[in-house]
From TrEMBL:
Pfam families, A to Z: Beta-prop_KIB1-4
Protein name: KIB1-4 beta-propeller domain-containing protein
Superkingdom, natural source: Eukaryota
Coiled coil location: none
InterPro entries tied to this protein: F-box_BR-signaling (IPR050942), KIB1-4_b-propeller (IPR005174)
KIB1-4 beta-propeller domain sequence ranges: 8-91
Length: 126
């Protein structure tokens, strides 16, 4: 369609934690509390998947950040196959978006939605 721009970019994040039972139970809506930082952790979100890691254990991973990948791809539209296009990082403390991987439309073409791959971390036996 002429004059139409498809934009699926992430524009905001709110991060919540589930309160402990000891904090009191005032109903379902009060069981979730918005957090202002991730206590040095990093959260990875994408395609119905979420995991959290200690950022200090992974070189280059930013603490108190949410790394996210596109959960939408134009594979269902045969004439518009651009692949994933919304990949970024959000710093919860600073409430700022950033990038960690920048690709061109040609690199994204015909690519499936991205996934996260984590190395196995051996437990500290000391």
């Amino acid at each position: 369609m002429e004059g139409y721009e498809l934009s699926m970019a992430t524009r905001s994040f709110k991060v919540f934690k589930l309160r402990d039972d000891e904090e009191g139970d005032r109903g379902v809506s009060s069981r979730f509390v918005e957090v202002k930082d991730l206590n040095g952790d990093a959260v990875f979100v994408g395609d119905n998947y979420l995991t959290a890691v200690r950022a200090r254990e992974f070189e280059g991973v930013r603490s108190d950040s949410v790394y996210y990948t596109d959960d939408f791809s134009e594979f269902n539209f045969p004439d518009v196959n651009l692949g994933p296009h919304d990949v970024g990082v959000f710093n919860v403390k600073e409430k700022k978006f950033g990038s960690f991987y920048v690709s061109t439309p040609a690199q994204n073409r015909d690519m499936p939605p991205p996934i996260w791959i984590f190395p196995t971390i051996a437990p500290d036996m000391d």
